[in-house]
């Protein structure tokens, strides 16, 4: 009888970097375009062509490694990994074998984003290796160790058309990649997906990748097996490597399917665990199944050798510290700081930090704001709605953070009502004029003059005998409607606070 089991997952993420040129030649590094228009003898691997390491490539590698808490090698080199496949014209890939650029890092997954089953007291299938203070859920993380990050070039792209023809586009070959290899520290499909999401966010923040999954900027291979406890004994199922998962959804679904398949296989047709071999699989998204590509018996020897055309090289302390300094504040640190500094909710902070550009924009606005929560609300409720509708980001805006701060301050200081605030916002988005200018031009001022408002209140009461009668009969919800009438009479300028007080007082008397 199987008593319990634990899912064990390790990931290898290939991530394309945004350097100007390809890894070892001067071809432009970008996505798409006419096939075979960005190729040269080096990236095509023509005999005699000499590769040269792009400086930007190593720089970005150091930035990425630092952001993922790795140590950086002071001495490193490139190697050749041999295999034969049509998308690899050279017959080998330039990669790093035994001395990766970065080693021994980690990524902390925020505890609050983990699935319910990973919580303490939940199912005990999950590992509970947490860093931080166990008493405060905000400070709790699940740590996933990063074994290594190495540099390697991407290969070309195979296109299969009409089910008949296969083409190869070599534009992508030689594109600089980092490969991030983790320890088997993830214990659920959701954790594996969250890991990829967290890495994507961090590497975007530090500006080394576009992280665009649709364009294949990040691809994940998941190594998965189970630890099973049966009749007091512990077993391990054979490891499957599921290749090329290119969305969070695919990672989650593929790992969930494979875990279930391995458990069924363990129960029905037990295979001995052999740590030296694994099944290589693909994910069939259409049928929702993992598909065996290579079985554990077909071990591949890559015949690694040192890349003879690139001299092993050392990195100076200056080079490393200069690039490590580019990392700056990481998204999770920023979230914690914004929560503490401004008392914003998890949800608001999550949205405001969803991109570095938006977070920076918000912080600029917050700097000049008297009421930061109000400023956050204008950005979250009004500004993002407009941006979403236009499919734009803050970088497309004509207005500046100063505009939002001014608008927020005018409302915080009761210079204008929130209704007027909406009008100012609309006008500001249209014309990019500063709120102070719009308020002046439109003659918007809040009327807090008690005498004037009292007159509006009296008029409204006199004009609406039926509503007053309803009120006296206990229909207190007419107050809201009456307030609306008072605001209308004042042209939206009455101070809502004063108007409410006066209306209530007059209703008592009526
Ligand atoms: Zn090239
Ligand atoms: Mn690789």
Summarize the structure in words.
The chain has 510 residues and is α+β, with helices and mostly antiparallel strands. 38% of the residues lie in helices and 21% in strands. The chain is built from 16 helices and 18 strands. The strands form 4 sheets. Strands 1, 2, 6, 7, 8, 11, 12, 13, 14, 15 and 16 form an 11-stranded mixed β-sheet that branches. Strands 5-4-17 form a 3-stranded antiparallel β-sheet, with no helix packed on it. Helix 2 packs across helix 5. The longest helix is centred in the middle third of the chain and has 21 residues, at 248-268.
Topology diagram in text:
Layout: E1 2-16, H1 41-44, H2 55-67, E2 71-72, E3 75-76, E4 79-82, E5 92-95, E6 102-110, E7 130-131, E8 141-153, E9 157-161, E10 165-169, E11 176-182, H3 189-205, E12 218-230, E13 233-236, E14 240-245, H4 248-268, E15 279-284, E16 289-294, E17 305-306, E18 313-314, H5 317-324, H6 331-342, H7 346-352, H8 356-367, H9 372-390, H10 401-412, H11 418-431, H12 435-441, H13 450-463, H14 465-472, H15 478-489, H16 496-509
Parallel strand pairs: 14-15
Antiparallel strand pairs: 1-11, 1-12, 2-6, 3-18, 4-5, 4-17, 6-8, 7-8, 8-11, 9-10, 12-13, 12-14, 15-16
Helix pairs in contact: 2-5, 3-4, 8-9, 8-10, 9-10, 10-11, 13-15, 13-16, 15-16
The protein binds zinc ion and manganese (II) ion.
């Amino acid at each position: 009888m199987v008593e319990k089991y634990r899912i064990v997952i390790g990931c290898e993420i290939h991530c394309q970097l945004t350097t100007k040129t390809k890894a070892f030649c001067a071809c432009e590094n970008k996505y798409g375009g006419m096939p075979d228009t960005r190729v040269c003898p080096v990236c095509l691997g023509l005999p005699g062509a000499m590769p040269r390491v792009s400086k930007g490539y190593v720089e970005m590698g150091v930035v990425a490694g630092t952001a993922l808490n790795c140590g950086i090698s002071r001495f490193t080199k490139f190697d050749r990994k041999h295999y034969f496949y049509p998308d690899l014209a050279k017959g080998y890939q330039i990669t790093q074998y035994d001395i990766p650029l970065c080693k021994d890092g980690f990524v902390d997954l925020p505890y609050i984003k983990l699935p319910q089953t990973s919580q303490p007291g939940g199912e005990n299938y999950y590992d509970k290796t947490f860093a931080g203070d166990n008493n405060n859920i905000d400070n709790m993380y699940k740590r996933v160790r990063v074994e290594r990050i190495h540099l390697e070039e991407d290969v070309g792209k195979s296109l299969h058309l009409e089910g008949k023809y296969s083409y190869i586009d070599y534009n992508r070959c030689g594109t600089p990649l980092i490969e991030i290899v983790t320890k088997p520290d993830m214990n659920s499909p959701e954790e594996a997906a969250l890991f990829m999401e967290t890495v994507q966010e961090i590497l975007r923040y530090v500006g080394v990748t576009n992280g665009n999954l649709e364009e294949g900027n990040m691809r994940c291979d998941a190594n998965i097996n189970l630890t099973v406890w049966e009749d007091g004994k512990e077993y391990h199922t054979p490891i499957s490597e599921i290749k090329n998962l290119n969305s969070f959804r695919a990672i989650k679904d593929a790992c969930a399917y494979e875990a279930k398949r391995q458990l069924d296989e363990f129960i029905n047709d037990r295979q001995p665990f052999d740590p030296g071999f694994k099944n290589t699989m693909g994910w069939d998204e259409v049928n929702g199944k993992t598909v065996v590509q290579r079985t554990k018996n077909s071990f591949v020897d890559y015949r690694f050798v040192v890349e003879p055309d690139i001299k092993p090289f050392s990195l100076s302390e200056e080079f490393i510290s200069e690039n490590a300094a580019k990392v700056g504040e990481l998204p999770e640190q920023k979230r914690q700081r914004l929560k503490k500094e401004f008392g914003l909710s998890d949800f608001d902070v999550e949205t405001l930090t969803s991109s570095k550009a938006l977070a920076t924009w918000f912080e600029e606005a917050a700097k000049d704001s008297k009421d930061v929560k109000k400023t956050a609300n204008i950005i979250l409720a009004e500004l993002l709605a407009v941006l979403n509708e236009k499919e734009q980001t803050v970088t497309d805006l004509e207005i500046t953070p100063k505009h939002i701060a001014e608008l927020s301050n005018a409302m915080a200081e009761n210079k204008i009502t929130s209704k007027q605030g909406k009008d100012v916002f609309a006008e500001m988005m249209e014309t990019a004029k500063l709120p102070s200018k719009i308020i002046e031009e439109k003659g918007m001022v809040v009327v807090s003059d008690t005498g004037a408002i009292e007159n509006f209140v009296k008029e409204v009461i006199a004009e609406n005998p039926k509503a007053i009668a309803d009120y006296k009969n206990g229909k207190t919800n007419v107050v809201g409607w009456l307030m609306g009438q008072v605001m209308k009479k004042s042209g939206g300028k009455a101070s809502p606070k004063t108007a409410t007080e006066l209306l209530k007082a007059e209703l008592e008397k009526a």
